[in-house]
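Sat 14:20. Reprocessing the chain from the morning session after the first attempt stalled halfway. Input below, unchanged.
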Amino acid sequence: EREPANVNARLFLAHALSRGYHAGGAKDPSLLRRAQDEYERVLAFDSRNKPAHAGALAVSIERKEFGAAREWARKLAALDPSEKSAWYAIGTVEWAAAYPAYVQARMASGNRMEDPA
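Finished this time. Tokens:
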């Protein structure tokens, strides 16, 4: 590492790793872990870096780490309350966390998912 504090290079690397996970057929989870590490390194140098917060949020959602995603979304919303994607992510994460219990309750009550609520 020639310039460990180069935030732009680290951010570019994190984005590339995240995109690499989505490219091609087989998805390598280590790419997401490495992307998350790079986003966190960026935030160690610049705690208010919105792209790093947004990237960490996206990686957490992709990894289905809803607790972490909730925290990243809240941090992003606190950093910029006008950031619509943060508020959308909070709602999405809460829905994703609650939906399995909702499905289970509907099935236990004898209702099918296609039946009207």
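The chain has one domain: 7-108.
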